[in-house]
Amino acid sequence: MADETTTAEEELSEERAGAGPGFILGTVLGILAGAAAATLFAPATGEELRHRFSEESGWPEDGESAPQASGLETPVERVRTLLTRVRSRMKEATAEGREAAHEVEEEQRARFAELTKNE
After folding, report:
1. How far is CA 109 from CA 2, 12, 114, 116, in A?
2. Which of 41, 77, 92, 119 is in Cβ range 3.0-4.6 Å of 73 for a Cys bridge?
């Protein structure tokens, strides 16, 4: 029985030893395929994306000066503004959800009353 265990352990170590080069090759090929796909399917060039980002974020393309220098919101202020908008939308959505649930509840109560009335 000890021989069977040793044989199984040897086979397992041989399998692991052979998996190393295949795994590395697969990883390298995966990286290359991912890079090729990203290049082919990119919506714009790097320069266009940097330009679009700088326009939308308020940060200059050179990345040197902060938006405060040009009178724009700081990143913290932008996040606060965004959070305020998100909270407002969440309150609206919650109120709409409660209203819809109340309407469904009333409809179901009326339907239940109608069904029990006929019995």
Report:
1. 73, 66, 9, 10
2. 77
